[in-house]
Each structure stands twice: as C-alpha cells, then as structure tokens.
Amino acid sequence: MAAVSHDSHGHNEAHGHHDHGHHEESFVSKYIFSEDHKMIGKQFLITATFMGIVAMLLSILFRIQLAWPGEGSDFVSFFLGETWAPGGVLKEDMYLGLVTIHGTIMVFFLLTGGLSGTFSNILIPLQLGARDMASGFLNMLSFWFFCLSSIIMFVSLFIETGPAMAGWTVYPPLSALPQAISGNGLGMTMWLFSMAIFIAGSLIGSLNYIVTVLNLRTKGMTMTRMPLTIWAFFVTAVLGVLSFPVLLSAALLLIMDRLAGTSFFLSDIIVGGEMLTNHGGSPILFQHLFWFLGHPEVYIVLLPALGLSSEIIATNSRKPIFGYKAMIGSILAIGFLSFIVWGHHMFITGMNPFLGSVFVFTTLLIAIPSAVKVFNYITTLWRGSLVLTPAMLFAIGLVSTFISGGVTGIILADSALDIAIHDTYFVVAHFHIVMGMSAVFGMFAGVYHWFPKMYGRMLNTRLGYIHFWITIIGAYGVFFPMHFVGLAGAPRRYYDYSVYNEFDTNSYEMIMDLNVIVTGFAIFAALGQLLFLFNFFYSIYRGPKAPQNPWNSTTLEWTAPVEHIHGNWPGELPTVHRWPYDYSKPGADQDFIPQNVPLAEGEEEH
Amino acid sequence: MMVSKLIALIVIILGVIAVAQLVRVYELTAKLRNRGEHEISTRDNNLNGKMMFGFMIALYIFIAWLMLRFGWTGRGEAASTIGKETDWLLNLNFIILFAAFILTNSLLFFFSYKYVKKEGVPAYFFPHNNKLEMIWTIVPALVLAVIIVLGLKKWNEATANAANESICIELFSKQFDWTARYSGQDNKLGRFDYKLTTDNNELGLLTTESIDSAIVAMENGPNGINKLENKLNDQRLMMIPEDREKMELDLSRKQRMIRLLYQMKERHDSKIDKHAWDDIIQKDTLYLCVNKEHEFNFRAKDVLHSAFFPHFRAQMNTVPGMVTRTKFTPDITTKAMRERMNNPKFNYVLMCNKICGGAHYKMKMIIVVLEEKDYKKWISSKKSFKENYFAATSAPAPSSAMSADSTMVTKDTASVAMN
A320, B126: Cβ pair inside 8 Å? Predict the structure, then answer.
C-alpha cells in the first residue's frame, strides 16, 4: 500500500525526531489542560458524546409520554423520580423542560460543539500540514468554555425548580417571566449563562480556525487545493463569528430584562395577576436576534457534516469529488445566503408581509446550491468503485436525509404554505431529518473514518454496519411518520393530544397510532446507539492497531505517523503538489495519489 | 420494583459482556485470516450494496403505506376559501417535490448498489463537466421560480387587508384560554389599554367609566395604593424584610401606573366610548358566519401564544404589546362538515400553537360556523359589553356574576349551534 508516499516519508523520518515531541508530559498537561489540537478534538468529542447521550435519553422519556400518555412507566420514574414523574407519569412542566433541554443540547452541544469542535480541531492542522492551531492556548480555552457551559446546562436538569422550560428558542416573554412557568426561575438563568459561556468558547474556537486556515497552510497548499472538509470548516467558522455574537447580545438583553428590570422584549404584560410596568419592548425583536443566529446555525451544523461526507464519499468511491469548484461555490453561496433568510422562521409572527416575501425569495434560493451539492454527490458515486465502509454508508445516508429533509424545507419556506403547517410536527420532522439526522450521520461518518487517526486503532467494522442499519431504519422510522402527524395539524410541544378528543376523535386516533410507531422506532434507534458506544470505548483500548493510511486516502493527515506526536510530523512539514482528489487518475500506478507526491513528468494537475 | 431493576441491570451487564466476547471472537478470526479492519471484504461490500437497494425499496413501501393510511385525511378538507387554495398549492408542491425526492434518492441508492467495487473495474476519473453542472443549476432554479411565483401570489392575497364590510373579531389570549370580542353594531372594535384591566373589564376596554373604575381599584382596591401605604406606615405591623421590600416595589409600580391612568383620563375623548360599549364578549365557543369574511385582531395578555385554525389553514401569533391580524372566509358550516366527515361530534377548533406554559396543550376554543340566519339570531341574543358591565358593577360580587352570566349564554348558544 501507500507505496507512493513512502519515499517522502522515509525521508522525513531520517532527520526528524529532535525538533518535536518526546519530552515527558505530565498527565495534566497531556490529558486535561492540553494545548494539542488532537487531544482537544478528542475532548470535544467525548464531552459532546456525553451530552448527546443525555439529550437522547431525554427524548426517549418524553416520547414515552407522547405514545402512552398518562400511563406510569418504571423507566420514566427511574430517571425522574416522584418529583417530576409521580407514579411514572411525566409532569406537564417537566415535559416542556425535557423538550427544551433536548433541543438545546442537540443543536448547540452535540452538533455545534461536538461536530465542528471535534473535527475542525483534529482535521484543520492535519489536513493543512500545520504543526498545530494558530493559538494552542486559545484552543484549550475554547474547550474549557465549552466544557463549563456543558456542565452548567447539565446541572440545570437537577435543580429543584427544574430546567429552562421555554423551548430551545427561549422566546420571551415566557422566558423572561419567572411567574409564567416553574423552570423559568433559576433554570432559565442557568440556561442563559450556559449559553453565554458556550458562545464565548465557540467564538474563540472559530477565530482560531479561521486564522489557522488563512495562515498556517503548508507549502503548496493553496486555497483551491484544500480538501472540502477544510472549506466547510472555514466557512462554518466565519458564520459562527458573524452570527453567534448576535445571539450573545440577545441572551444578554434577556438577562437584563430578567434581572435588571429593563424592557427590551416586554410590553404591556399582566402575568399571575401582576400588572407589569414594562412598556415599549418587543418580543419580536428577540426573535429577529435569535434567528439571525438561528438560521446560520443550521448551516454551522450542516456544513461540517457535508464537508466530512464529501471527503469520505470521494475516498470510498475511489473517484474525485465531482465538481470540486462547484462544491466550494455552493458552500460559499449557502454560507452567504444563510444570513439573509432568518425571517422564514417568523412568517406568522405579525412581521410585515412584504418582508415575508423577501425572505421567501432568499430562502428558496438556498435550494439551488443545495441541489448542486446533492447532484454532485450522486455523480461522484456514478461509475465509482465503491468501498462501503461504515463511514461511507453513513455519508450516503447523509445525502439521503439531506434530500428528504430538504424537499420539505421548500414547503416550509413558502410563506403561503407555512401558515398551515407552521409549528406543527411537519416542522419537527423537517428539521430533524435535514439538520439532526444529516449532521448526526455526518458526525458518525467522521468518527468511523477518522477514528484510526484519532486513537491509532480501528473500530469494529461489523458492529459499525449493524449500527448504521439500525440508525438509518430507526431514524427514518421516527421522523418520516411525523410529517403525517403535522399534516393532521398536530402542534409541536404538546404534552398530549387529548384535546383532539373534544373536536375530532378520528384525528386523535390517527395521531396516537403514529405516535406509537414513532416512539417504537425511537427506542429501537436509541438501543442501536449502545452498540456504537460500546464499539467506540472498547476500540479506544482494545481495537486492532491502525495502519497509517487505512482508507488509501490522498489527504495529508494520513501522511502523519499513527503515533500522535506534538507537532504532527516528525521533521519537515509535507509539501503539497496537487489537489486532494487524485483518485483513479488515468495513467497512475495506484488508484490514489497523495497530495504530497510531486506531479510526474508530463502529468497535468487535474 | 427493586427486583425488576436488579434483573434489568444484570441483563444489561451480561449483554455488554456477550457483545465484548463476540467482538473478541470476531477479532481472532479476522487475525487468523490475516485481514485488517480497514479492508472491506467483497462479501461485506456486496451485501451492504444490496441492502442499500433493499432499504430504498423498503423506505418507498413505508412511505406509500403511510400515505395510504394517513395521507391528508388527518385534518379534513379545508373549510375556508383561502384554505382551499392553500391545499391546492400544497398538493402541487408535494407533487413536484415528491418527484425530486424519488428521483434523487433512487439514483443515490441505486448507484450505491450498482457501482460497488468489482475486481478489475476501475473507477471512472470524472472530475467535472460544465454542461451537466449548468443543467442541474438551471433546472432547479426554473422549478423554484414557479414555486416562488405561485407562493407569493397566494401570500399577497392571504395577507392583504380585509374588506371593510368583513366581520371584525378580536381574539384575546392568556394562559390558558381564549376570549373573543365581536365588534358589535358599528363593526368597530373599541379601544383598549392593558392598564384598565379589572375584574369586570378583563380585556381592558377603554371607556370613561372603565378609566374611573381602574383608578378607583388602583387607589382603593384590596391591594390598592392606599392599603399598601397604610400597611407600610403601620408601626405596629411586623414584617419580614423581604416581604416589606416586595410591598414597596409593588407600591412604587402602582404609583407609576396611577400617574399613567390619570394622564389617560385627561386625554380621553368620551366620543369613542360607544365603540367599546357595543362590543360583545364571548368565551368558550367562537361563532362564525359562513361565507362572510372575518377579520381577526389578536392580543396577548401575558406571553406569546399562536392562534392556529387547522381546519381553515390560518395561523397568527399573538404578541403582548402588539396587535396582529389575519383573515379568512369560512365556507362550510359545522353542520355540513359533520355530514361530510361522517362524524356527528366533529368541531372546528382554535388551538394555541406557541409554547406558553404547562397547560399549553389544553388551550383551545371550539369554533362553530353557522348559517347567516342562525348567526344573526345568535348575535342578537348576546348582551353587549355595556349591559354586562353595568349589571356586574351594581351586583355585590362582580366577578362571579360575570362568569355565571357567560356560562348561561354558552348553554343557550350551544343549542343554537345544534340547530
């Protein structure tokens, strides 16, 4: 294998070793306050995995309530006890608390911190040929902010009055008025502080990624020779830097409304019999600020997943990614457009209808670069020589969910149609498929593909296959039926649908049938994740040793030695001579040519 | 309980050990065959390729089953003119998008099956093709243009101002119910201010008398300014410092409020009182008139709510401190709809569709669409705000009298609906 890369490698080893690594590191500086991007990436991954398990468990708890409302469950009572689930029946308030924290953790902690935090850290320096991030210290700080915010969010589940209960979008006035629901006292305060810290950490991280991509590319690594993963991480980081501060300002203003008596978001309110003096604020302002982050956030979650899958699909199709430049163009177009579409979350808030039409137009424009990406993936598979590794399966699964969730997005982006299905389960189905499933599939694909790079060992492939099939069957089984619940008009965030009994018993029966199907698949899919967790932790310690370039890939991270060293490459950094997608190039001996191999005589760059 | 938990725990532990052992066995056999985890065997590769194809077929069957069994029926046909257009457009969009969904997913899964690695068949080096890329940029753009044009046309109709002669109704939302206010004889809703909210003026309607009574309540009510001042100045009263602080805050808030109320009184023009006095306040059931356009004005007392009319395909958020609007024309009476759905108990409904607190899921109002003559009969049987207001103020217990009255009215109107 990898014969082509061997020369350059042997060459490196000959005079490496002195410059970097091999001084003894203490446990603390190696595993805890590490400034090494590879370790920080793994710290992000483990923390996010923990948060992801918590969020998944919360979803199972409230799914049990939705499928069998009012029936006591030992499982629910085991986790929530008598306070929040007397007799094993979830309480109304806690139902909203679980929904809120599930959403918050999944969107921010798993899919933002976990996905972009893990893979940007591990891959940016390794794929660019850099020794480390531009600032190791800031990188470390970004993880510890993330960790602290995770801890605060997690702890808020256990306080006496319960966690935040205003939905993950925390719209005021509900989130601003502790009188309105029990979790909106301390729980909401913790939510806001956790998010403020999270944002600070995410900003530090993003700035670091941007600087690294712009400044630390190795010799020959021009912007148009960067793998699509890096393009995706780069644009993601830019989106984060431009949009997260807006959420921070919204959170701070909300904190002021709650603690300092200001009226940014409050006006003319009577709550709990108390007439508040706040006047002149606007709850709609919060929604504008929130979604100015909230929509780019969707792409902060999605783009890294799409970047990872581009790399994995090209490698395992043994073909160049089709339309490399078009892929970069689409990433940039999606990134730009994502800033001018936030209003589509607010068609029915009472926003000016003309403004609504503008947002319809810009939102539907995003479908074009998205369609380009999908067709490019499909063409990459066409006449490929596919090696269906677990990572490849997840990457293909991602393209499928990106399509399935994308088409329903077009309906929701059409304001005239949105009126009928806004805030119903149709929306829940849409964003779970397009954002949740796609990003989670991308994350799994990334873990399966780069596990050898992260831990120097291999994951078990068979368990990987079983995990994939359980996950895709479970995920489609959960989220596809939800469209029909939504078309039946069922609003989201309802504790149960008993109210339907009072006006349409047929609808009620249909919704309940579907809810049982959904919960059944959810439990099935959740159990499947245990296989992954087992495989993951088992293989860290006992998996077979990984070869240097297990997938016969062209990018630079596979030219670094399996054993992690500080500085990534012993000796000189590799020099780049070609784009990252020279797979099955006609005339080459092998079906891949790593980026650090010079052009052969008479060879043309693609 | 404990035993079952213990058993569950043991099963989990045994399960983990079993998987670990299986993995060990698998690893040993892999080692014997001298094959690394990264080398995917032809058998595994082909099997997963076939499973991809099989999954696609299974997914399509699942979707077909869902559509046949659950389809659109969950909500019934649209019961408003605008809703019928929404459904038409929604169906058109579904057809276009379903075609795109099937086309792309089929290609994706079919290729994953067809192009699985075969010995001796190299991958085809195909980095880009401008013509193809142009095609799949332009075709989606054209399809989207159609979707956008049709959608915006419909959106402009749905959000245009209601006609002057439309029936004007205010829907007032609070945790966790709805109150309707009909605009009465003059078809003009009276003005309101949240500071005027008292027991017998729950919607805070603005009239000379309601300003006066709000001032009285604020100054001399059971928790009014005078009472609070007396308590705070009472030397004999022992209070916990926190309670005292709370009371002082409450007092200063009320003092600010009373200034605003006096300002309002100064500026008030009693000529507009009549718009409020003839309004009709209605709880529990919302009555609409078939084939008449209705304009709805929404208000919220405490937090955001959303007025969701699933059967009329209409929805609008209600926002504290702001009035939002929507309109629609119901075109099927409740009676006719019951016959069409073959469900004698069916009703239209208004639900809350924005998270608003623990009992969010119970916040609803039944809607009854009546023939014009029944509607007229019903509305003429209703007492105006003025009649109820003065009946309540003269009665000894204002709030209870008010609610007794409204339940009576509901019973009475329910019989109208049944006819």
Answer: yes
